[in-house]
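Q: I'm writing up a methods section and want to include an example of the input and output format. Could you take the sequence below and give the corresponding predicted structure tokens, formatted cleanly so I can copy it straight into the document?
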Amino acid sequence: MKKIVCILLAAMLLLLSACSGGGFKPAVYRMNDSYPRISLKEDGSFVFVHGASASRMTLGTYTVEENEGNTALKLECEDGETVYYFDVTEDSIVFDGENSTPIFREFEDESEITDGTEFDLWREYK
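A: Here is the clean output for your methods example:
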């Protein structure tokens, strides 16, 4: 009997986790098949590598928020002031520039990131 209850609970948890987050997966997302890349780790931390040289990285934590059927990703940077928002789609995250701190290019190898810039799911964690 205990085994059946445990199996049912595990199945319910799996179903709930599959339904929440609007398709969000902790993973690595990238823009234009290259850089920048955003690694969203399972522990709630992120690393945002802005260019191929990896000379500029932004670190912090993220949360996933549900609002009226939409899923939003909020990245809070270590500086305590910078916040980036993304809309979560099936296999990507889309930068919400209207509600985010602007992202400025500091080096030539960095791409411009404006409202609506899409980061595609690139690699999932095992």
